Prior knowledge:
- The chain is of the alpha+beta class.
- It has a domain at 70-186: endopeptidase domain like (from Nostoc punctiforme) (endopeptidase fold (from Nostoc punctiforme)), CATH 3.90.1720.
- It has helices spanning 2-32, 73-85, 106-116; strands at residues 36-37, 59-61, 64-68, 134-135, 141-145, 150-154, 157-160, 171-173, 183-186.
- Strands 4-9-5-6-7-8 form a six-stranded antiparallel sheet, with helices on one face.
- The N and C termini lie far apart (59 Å).
Amino acid sequence: MAKFWTAFKAVAVVVVLFAAVAASRSAEARAAAGGLSARSGSATGSGAMAPSATPTDSMLVGERALAPLDAPPVVRRVIAAANRIRTRPYIWGGGHLRWASRGYDCSGAVSYALHGGGLVRTPMVSGSFMNWGAAGPGRWITIYANRTHVYAVIAGLRWDTVGDVRGTGPRWHAEPPYPKGFAVRHPIGY
């Protein structure tokens, strides 16, 4: 009987590992397609997502953010735009002459992401974000700006150009924001 339980446990471990790998690959496939995170939200008959009291956080799959299923379409487009440039290098002034650039600085990267959601028409410099939108944190998107730096928190993930183990440039970060010394703004409605 002991051999049976040992074999049963081994099979159970294999099944759990297989399910985890399959779920991870499914999430990676959704991410590769600019997909959505299924962490929360429920579909309505119209194909729209039912509103929730509190937005859920995006999740990272590798270096790509997955938008929560309950995220509004504008927020999904902002995340998808940021994902398109998430591996570009930091280049001072990058993203200001044209949207497509070899690299991006902090304000170019934030502008690019917001432009993807239709929230800005032209690139802005860091200091301009100090008076952009409405004061305070947003439900889905919050901008942290001062005269020399800007970054965003989009559906719970920090979009920033500060360095990490992969270098500097536009990157998603799971670490929380560092708001001291920054004006806190948000796009109206988000």
